[in-house]
Request: fold
Amino acid sequence: MKFMKLGSKPDAFQAHGKYVRYVASELETDVTINVGEVKFNLHKFPLMSKSNRLLMLLSKAGEENEIDIVDFPGGPKSFEICAKFCYGMIVTLNAYNVVTARCAAEYLEMTEGVDRGNLIFKIEVFLNSSIFRSWKDSIIVLQTTKSLLPWSEDLKIVGSCIDSIASKTSVDPASITWSYTYNRKLSVPDKIVEEGMNFRDKIDSVPKDWWVEDISELDIDLYKRVMITVKSKGRMDGKVIGEALKTYAVRWLPDSFDDSVSDARTLRYRYLVETLICLLPPDKAAGCSCSFLLKLLKFAILVGVDDSAREYLVKRISLKLHEASVKDLLIPAQPPQNTLYDVELIQCIVSRSLMHGKCSQDTKHEENGDFILGHEHVTLMNVGKLIDGYLTEIAYDPNLTISSFVDLSLSIPEFARPIHDVLYKAIDIYLKEHLSLTKAEKKKVCGLMDVKKLTTDASTHAAQNERLPLRVVVQVLFFEQVRAASGVQALNNKARDTSNSTTNTDEEWEKTAADGNKSLMKQMSRMKIKDEDFLKNGKLLKKNSKIPKNGVQLLPSRSKRIFDRLWVVGRGHVENRSSETSGSSQSPTSIAPGDTKSFGSSSRQRRHSIS
Reply:
């Protein structure tokens, strides 16, 4: 920290109690100056020789020799600095007291016209030659100016500090030789290794956002002015601006917010959030991360920021939704909503994001007619993955309506959801937490997914899930059988000619489905024979029966009944698949195996309609 010493005489100021200050001298004091609650017993001549205002005040005082100064800038402490300078006593100026001394000297009119080398001149030299050239001193001085408004503003100290700070933020990091604060976690390329690194290497390792933590200590009004000046210079990257705003928000916004916060503090938070929103970098594609924007939106809702600011945030978020995490989307709902999270807000953001993606989709077409997935296509797939994860979180909410769940799921286009495992998990959770759903409602929820897009693990789980409608389980079992048959066929084709890759057409799919049904019926025949053997021997099947050596696994009674239905369906509809298996199928996720019972009734006693 820079400092300047003025005067050469020892400090002779002494205190008598808390509110009386005097100069220890052989000469008796002849004037009393009241500054606020403190009385200064001083001598007229030293004061009048340096201060034009004191000269006029003491001349008017007459024989009373006592004057009152009510609105003195900086109060008694700053007056004492000026008084010591008048006596020629040692005074040390630094970044913490230079502004108050400058404002006090201006009030007392300690100019060059009164005495050459007066206090105003010396302070101006110190500010311009030392303070404004120092990074941290400029910030400290700027912080002290707030309590001295409007004096510090009129004397252009505030503006000079802001210009000095903004100019230094634009300096090439390789040219920075001064100290700065950087407590945030550095990325591997930016991390400064203290040991084994010379001074030149440390300078080269200065990150671009080296300055953001130091200025985050400023009050919001001063911070706003600094950031506006930094942006006006046009040399700062939008990402660095975004990092600065994020750092300031972390510094001043609380981690949580509730109704117990006072109105005054709520107003302060509201003004802070509104200021940060107006300071967002203009480049919507870069700058602030989506995670930070969502946190800002969350807090904006909590403190009651106006609709225009929230609308602006929603617009910015929709352009970068693919960068968000599920945790970022969990924004608490506000009255009169009775859900845990604001699903309507997320629905709005998703709709805007998809609309933007549709308008700017850059899918290209190759010469052979195949599509190349462009950047926008991949972005929408990331959004689909994000929303599926969000659905698994909100599915636990008992107050979440089926329409909200279904509408949000349907907002994602089919191509953006190539795998339905996470969606299946969300559906299963929703069915588990909403046991009062009717059969039609369960069918509607399960209709969101396509069982052909489930992985093998998810299909295995779904086949044993008793929360799913029977029709969905049948579809899962059927397409698993088709998938298995298709895999065998693909291996055979590859063995014949490894140079030719095959793609199933509709006719091949029908053939594969027929083969799958034949294979399924053969397995069921073996299972029925084995069942008869068990019954003859009087053995009871247990829940956790082991897999026999021949590989046939005994399934729970519900799955056995499903196989019986597939037996009937497969016999009559191999060529033309029934409507139950032709549509998109769906299935949820928690394991709920049914009780295993012995196979009792034949396929002829089963219903032909599967619902």
The mean pLDDT is 79. The longest strand covers residues 31-35. The chain is about 50% helix and 5% strand. The two ends are 81 Å apart (CA to CA).
